[in-house]
From TrEMBL:
One Pfam family it belongs to: Guanylate_kin
GO cellular component: cytosol
Protein name per UniProt: Guanylate kinase
Family listed: Belongs to the guanylate kinase family.
Signal peptide start and end residues: none
Source organism per UniProt: mine drainage metagenome
Keyword Disulfide bond: no
Keyword Cell membrane: no
Highest classification ranks of the organism: unclassified sequences, metagenomes, ecological metagenomes
Gene Ontology terms, MF aspect: GMP kinase activity
PROSITE patterns: GUANYLATE_KINASE_2 (PS50052)
Length: 97
């Protein structure tokens, strides 16, 4: 039988500003916890190359469609490596000043 290969996904917010907006909107963390989560997220995003696929979680319907597309065609990346690298750099640069 052929070996089963798992896929490693990383889900990223569309921007750090949007991530902060989402976390604040939940109202589940104190300010110090929120700051820690934002720092942790930026650190984790820098490891995007460790994953098979990176999905920008902007709109839920589009995110689900992208995941389905990847699962149907696991050897096809949804973004070219240069495009993805640029998107990640823009994401990391999008944080509050």
């Amino acid at each position: 039988t052929p070996a089963v290969r798992g896929l490693r996904f990383s889900f990223c917010p569309p921007s750090q500003v949007e991530l902060e907006r989402r976390l604040r909107g939940r109202q589940t963390e104190a300010q110090d916890q929120l700051c820690r989560r934002l720092k942790d997220a930026a650190r984790e995003i820098r490891h995007w190359r460790d994953f098979d696929h990176v999905v920008v979680n902007d709109e839920i319907k589009r995110t689900v469609l992208e995941i389905r597309t990847i699962l149907d065609n696991p050897d096809t990346a949804p973004h070219g490596p240069l495009d993805l690298a640029q998107r990640i750099e823009e994401l990391l640069a999008s944080g509050p000043e």
